[in-house]
Amino acid sequence: MKKKPLIVGNWKMNKTVDETVDFIKKLAGEITNCNAEVYLAVPFTSITEAKKASEKTKIIIGAQNMNDASKGAFTGEISAVMLLDAGAEFVILGHSERRMFFGETDDFINKKLIRAVQDDIAPILCIGESLEQRENGKMKEVLKNQLTQALKKVSKEDIKDIKIAYEPIWAIGTGKTATAKQAEEVHKFIRTILQDLFGKKNAADIYILYGGSVKENNIKSLLKEKNIDGVLVGKASLEVDSFENMIKNF
Ligand code: PGA
């Protein structure tokens, strides 16, 4: 059976606290009857006010990154406990921009994931291949490696709190989306790997989101596919009207 779609906005390094609160107030009033789960991954500085503004609404607030340590001498970093304390309920881990610009490895992402599960903040694990890897026929190998390494030491119990986002790097912020069929094929492949790792029932229950230039004009066809349980939206989540239309009209 199709799961209730999950629509996650990833704001990246955008919006001040005031802009965040304004956005949430406008959005919340418009989506009271929507049939989707709505998450917003806001900048660290906006979490506390975003949480307050989203109380008694459908919007769940989360963060875009965290460190694997619980505290200590890690200048500029933030822990799961701090995110929870500020009001975040989920965290995006392993986004391709973190891998690309900040050198995050699968091993580091695995450590963060384990910490997130231990400390009770729900992770959304991002994986995805580059254009070069896809064109060289390496896509499946790359995705399988990213998944198995990031999910090392994750138990069948823990996997229930983890969501996966498939984000082909060539589709992020480029305006090039994978077609719904292309994305579905990959999602099906991801589910078979999850099945090998965690069993059929658990694999069927795991949310697998698609991300990469999701917009008003393609969200519907993506969410119709059997193995696409939701979407991770970057650019199109920054404008309240476009994000609202996506949530209302998928
Ligand atoms: P995009 O970003 O929707 O702007 O392509 C998606 C993401 O990076 O999560």
N-to-C CA distance: 17 Å
Which runs of at least 5 residues are low in confidence (pLDDT < 50)?
A: none
**H/E element sequence:** EHEHEHEHHEHHEHHEHEH
Give the assembly state of these chains.
single chain
Radius of gyration, in angstroms, nearest whole number: 17 Å
Structural class: alpha/beta
The dominant shape is: globular
Query: What's the total number of strands?
Result: 8
**Helix percentage range:** 40-55%
Strand order of the largest sheet: 1-2-3-4-5-6-7-8
Query: Largest sheet at a glance?
Result: 8 strands, parallel, barrel
Tally of contiguous helical segments: 11
Strand content: 5-15%
Bound chemical compounds = 2-phosphoglycolic acid
Mean pLDDT: 96
Report on this model:
By secondary structure, this protein is an alpha/beta fold. 42% of the residues lie in helices and 15% in strands. The chain contains 11 helices and 8 strands. The protein has an 8-stranded parallel β-barrel, surrounded by 4 helices. β7, α10 and β8 form a beta-alpha-beta unit. α1 (17-30) packs parallel to α2 (47-53), α1 runs parallel beside α11 (240-248) and α7 (139-150) packs across α8 (180-198). The longest helix is centred in the last third of the chain and has 19 residues, at 180-198. The mean pLDDT is 96. It binds 2-phosphoglycolic acid (PGA). 2-phosphoglycolic acid (PGA) is lined by residues 10, 167, 172-173, 211-214, 232-236.
